[in-house]
Amino acid sequence: MKSRELPEDLKNAFCCLKCRKVGVDAVRKKMPGLSRGYDRCKICKSYAYRYIEITTSPIIFVILTVMVIWQMPVSEDGSRPIVVIGIWISIMCGGYLSNASKRKKIRRLLEDHMRENIIDEEQS
Fold first, then answer.
1. Model-level pTM?
2. What is the pLDDT of residues 43-93, one digit of tens each?
3. Residue ranges of the domains in the chain?
4. Contact between residue 16 and residue 44 where contact means Cβ atoms under 8 Å apart
5. Distances in Å between the alpha carbon of 13 and those of 55, 103, 109?
6. Helix (H, G, I), strand (E, B) or coil at 50
7. CA end-to-end span of the chain, whole Å?
8. Residue 117: strand, helix, or coil
9. Which distant-in-sequence residues (6+ apart) come within 8 Å of 47 by Cβ?
10. 106: closest CA among 58, 61, 59, 39?
């Protein structure tokens, strides 16, 4: 199937991967100590995502990694702790792959939703 451009209203719609529904009602939950919260589906209480909010730009992850390594203290012999760098890079790669996977699943869900709506309109 050829990939279509998603409409802006679908990119901003809440999607629940557990319910496999688009446009679910979501409740904003606050995390203690953080200014930003997260959204929960009212139906199944699972996370509700917006396609447009999921970051999959590898440049952001690379910049964060470079900033952390740059600020890392240098040991007496002039090197940076390789184990800590390896752990940080693993965490960043895991975050990137997780976001890319979620974005792909949500895109597929939105495309299925668009396809179902087109079929329903043609039958009417």
1. 0.76
2. 998 999 999 888 888 888 888 888 888 887 777 776 777 888 888 889 989
3. 8-123
4. yes
5. 16, 13, 12
6. strand
7. 24
8. helix
9. 16, 17, 38, 39, 40, 41
10. 39
